[in-house]
Amino acid sequence: MIINHNVSALIAKRALQNTSRDMDKSMERLSTGMRLNRPGDDAPGFAVSEKLRSQIRGLGQAERNAQDGLSFLQVTEGSLEQVNSILQRLRELSVQSSNGIYSNDDRNLVQLEVSQLVEEVDRIGKTAEFNSIRPLDGRFSRASKNPMSFQVGGNAGERIDVYINTMSGSSLKISGGTDRLTLSTPDKASGSLKVLDEAITKVNRLRSDLGAYYNRLDLTMKSLSNNYVNLVSSESQVRDADMAMEMVEYSRNQILTKSGVAMLAQANVRPESVVKLLTDRY
After folding, report:
1. Looking at the predicted structure, is the pLDDT value of residue 178 above 60?
2. By the 8 A CB rule, do 205 and 26 touch?
3. Binning pLDDT at 50, 70 and 90, where does residue 281 land?
4. pLDDT tens digits, 73-97
5. Which residues pair with residue 130 across a beta bridge?
6. Which is nearest to 102 in space by CA: 184, 180, 188, 192?
7. What positions does the domain Flagellin N-terminal occupy (predicted)?
8. In angstroms, how far is the first alpha carbon of the chain from the final one?
9. For 188-238, how does the pLDDT look when each residue is reduced to its tens digit (9 = 90+)?
10. 66 falls in which pLDDT band (50, 70, 90)?
11. With respect to CATH, is domain 44-239 assigned 1.20.1330.10?
């Protein structure tokens, strides 16, 4: 029996300290719902989790970018719909003026409407706007080699380029110089039908392109949403705590803490037997 070193008390104290640390971790995990609260909990898992978080946030923003792209395309297509309606009206007037029964005064009255409609096509092409961006003025045409780009991924280079041709009156060849649309004679009115048919075809081709871009972005959004959910699930598997298992560990550590305290008390009582031995001897 010795009194200078209470080894039993030191062992009990060490075990109690270890149990207390484990219990603190269990309480932290139960209170936060996360298995990884700091890199020291699982260094490789923490690194993987942070990478997944970066991808998750990137995909979330990419999905919002795709939605903005859809809005942009909707506004642009809406402007083209108005242009197409105007071109259809111009064609109707051309067919009407191709009839020889109208006098020059009648044709001048028709020409007034034609001129106004042509100016409106030109105005829409130059001023149609989305967030201060004018999509129909030619800045995003293939000739300019400067497409409208939508970032639809969490990594560099994951984007969709959209090309939009110029849709002004001059590009449709219904205004400006010798291409000016005039219905002053039946022959000119009949000749304007070919110009208008080409303009309508050009507008419809661009609308079809925008429709294809729209469908692609819509599918991209669905893919991004699916990937987002899968990555969140993967990050949850790495980072979130299994509450049932943590509760089991907490209960276990709680019992060990109580027994550790009891054993530490017993270890501190043991040296009193030496005092009793000395008392009995003397």
Report:
1. no
2. no
3. low
4. 999 999 999 999 999 999 999 999 8
5. 133
6. 184
7. 3-139
8. 18
9. 888 889 999 999 999 999 999 999 999 999 999 999 999 999 999 998 888
10. very high
11. yes
Which pair of tokens denotes residue 255? 């019992």
Report the residue count for the chain: 282
Decide if 173 contacts 198 (C-beta within 8 A).
yes
Contacts of 35 (CB under 8 A, 6+ apart): 29, 41, 42, 45, 239, 240, 241, 242, 246
Residue with tokens 């075809």: 201
pTM of the model: 0.78
